[in-house]
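Below is how a single chain appears once it has passed through the pipeline. First comes the sequence as given, then the structure the pipeline wrote out for it. We keep one example in the README because the format questions we get most often are answered faster by looking than by reading.
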Amino acid sequence: VPSGSSGINAEYGVFVQVLESQRKVQETTSRRSYVYDCVGCHSFHLQKLGVHTPGTQQVVPGRGPPVGQNCQQCGKNFYIGGPIWSDPIHDTEFLGFMKEHLVNGHGGEYLGTTKRMTGLLTLAEEELEEVPLFYELSMLSKTVHSTCPPLVKFRSALLNAGYKVSLSHVIPKSVKTDAPPGVVWDVMRRWALDNGAKLREPDTVAGALLRKQCSFQVDFTQHPQAMLDKNVHRFPPNPEPNWGPKARAGKRKQQEGDQTGGWKSKKSSKKEPLKDLKQFSCKRYEMNQCYLGDGCRYSHDKRETPPASPPQSGDQDMSL
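Resulting structure:
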């Protein structure tokens, strides 16, 4: 069972708790789901593998599918992926213990990333437990060909509609919400039309999304819970430009005459000058097939052929 998950600097980690219980093993079927992802608008729906009856060890197969053949938002069909772990990926009690350990000074004396780890734990604590996946604002805007809405306005619209919303620890412009896909696209549709998005052809994904009617009155008034505490470093910047995994190391060789014992990569070493091959005659030139002229690495000087020996007096012309 996962107790905490993190992803930072292209590195991902999961803290797990191993439970040796037959009942817990059987319950894992009800904690995993298939994902139905729309080909066009990428609205997602979850299908549980099994359903656990509380108070018993019985787990029955899940019933579905949760969607029809075509997406209700754009009319496209679905990809099917998974199964994925659809239960909470964070244990708030475990995260709170780790955060308290850092805040109270344990490890702060010798750890240089205390603020960064505290921000990451705070971000994980704020995530919605019952929502495994998230939306990315840039992808939503790209789908309807509009400008990207500010994160505070988008969060406010969902909060004003009565739904929960949070960030994801994966990317800054993420939206985790318990709102159905239709509500998410209502908010995005209202923003796109209010900010000059062009209506595309009806048979396109953007055209189908923007031509639908909103199911409720979208309110972008700033909600108090939409603001984030700026003193918490949830997504700190990279320590230096181009931070992340580098190219794999190549073979290294020691340079001749290096008295310091330093090693230099093969890729950075200069190529050795080409050998002088003018002492060898060009075979292609002898066969009248070399067109490089003076640019040829081989010699184009004609070899002197030895003079033919005079005929002997006793020889006869056989052609007669």
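The first strand starts at residue 2 and ends at 8.

See the next section for the split statistics.
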